[in-house]
Amino acid sequence: MTFDAxxxxxxxxxxxxxxxxxxxxxxxxxDDRRVGLEVFARGGRRTLVLSLRPTDSRIYLTGERVRRGTxxxxxxxxxxxxxxxxxxxxxxxxPRLERVLTLHxxxxxxxxxxxxxxxxxxxMGRRSNLLLVxxxxxxxxxLVRVPPSVSPRRPLLPHLRYTLPPRSLKVDPADPTLDAVxxxxxxxxAGPAWRLVVATVDGLSxxxxxxxxxxxxxxxxxAVSAVDHWDDVVCALGEIVAPxxxxxxxxxxxxxxxxxxxxxxxxxxxxxxxxxxxxxxxSEVVETAVQEAVRSAPFxxxxxxxxxxxxxxxxxxxxxxxxxxxxxxAAEEADTLRQAGESILANVYSLTPGATWLEVEGxxxxxxxxxxxxxxAQAYFRQYTSARDARRIVPxxxxxxxxxxxxxxxxxxxxxxxxxxxxxxxxxxELENLGVVHSLRSASHAxxxxxxxxxxxxxxxxxLGAYRRVALPGAEILVGASALGNDTVTFRLxxxxxxxxxxxxxxxxxxxxxxxxxxxxxxHIDRAARLAARFSAARHATQVEVDYxxxxxxxxxxxxxxxxxxxxxxxxxRVRPAESDAAL
Length: 584
Known about the structure:
By secondary structure, this protein is of the alpha+beta class. 37% of the residues lie in helices and 21% in strands.
């Protein structure tokens, strides 16, 4: 379920009614990617939850007081306590059709002079972030620092200027020429019409585009070639985005039995077979969806230590990557360092004791006044040697750290998606073997508590990772439930002609469709693809692109961690993620 730009607008309107002018009494770190602001306004206390997780970024108000979930004190948290806690919410802003929310905070830090800062939440999927920006537009700090090596065009680091995310070149849904633009784009397009709408119209999620098409054509999956009247689609889009001007939103959730399938700030008509429940506010909708996600995760007590350990390892890997990038950048100056040392030696007799610089052919060379000329030259030669060696040593280390980050992101997903205690304990065992998690209990202690630890592999045999089975008529689906489990289903259980599935471009499970040979049933392919979408980092999206190919075309990446593969001769299809195994 996607927190899109229209949902953000509905929440922004609600915040303006409920907490504008309010006093921020407390800043509560819920976890590494979630912060709660307790705000006293309109005679009551509400908590604004800013959840900037990559897979489910959300912002909403709750009447409940959130609990501190981490003891880790970061520089960013200290800045929030200094400049946001005790401040007043002076203004709330959101660029039109952008998932960026700005809280303008006026405060008197440490009882001093008035100070105004902006707390900016960017709820943009994998790029989600929370930033504190000074009144002159300078980034004070960020929840997740983004160096130039990660985002050359838009680094987010202290002391740099803050810039908004690049604006989309798409057409505003209120543009009077939109119907003509869509008709023109449709002439050379194929596939589902909602994809064309998302690619053309600004600020729309797949759910909103599908809603507009369902209202005008009766189906959300209509092909581009089957749409006869794009002006009708534009009218439906106008109805959906009309609350941008009026503020009259219609928050609702589509339920299948006791499971929320989708939510939106407008009436959902594309799910005639589901129960549509309306709510008073958008925050109530988002909070309900969050509570359902928590309710469906009864093993959080076992899951949380693993996620915390992986998160710490990810931060360590990011620091290592930044250091390697710095070393490689310094390597570009190797020749300059060597030339500096040679220039000092060439002018050693003309340098006076205590000199702080030497100018050679218009170039200034810095010197240490406490060193002799020869010692200064040797220092430059040592720097040159390190920089020269970095050209050879650093690139393989960069590849290794990128592989480690990919592995850790994938294991984060598997831990979050684990469905029972056995899967969580198997994941813990894998992480302990790799040194990511320290062993807290011995096997004998686990046995005394009545639980059976994962069985060790036989001597000479690799360990089996966690995986799931889904039975189908005449076939079965295997779903990797860990990095090692992905290897298991792909390379040990999958046969050459079995079909292999994976969500494109995001961490996720390897899914194998077995027992179909070369004549795959289209229904089975759809079910396997939907499971691959469900067990991926894109599981909250309305539609996910899934690649599939024969197992014989999948290869392990040499020297990489478990689960890293390359593949070829793939086909792809877009599917709605499966809601549960039973739903298949």
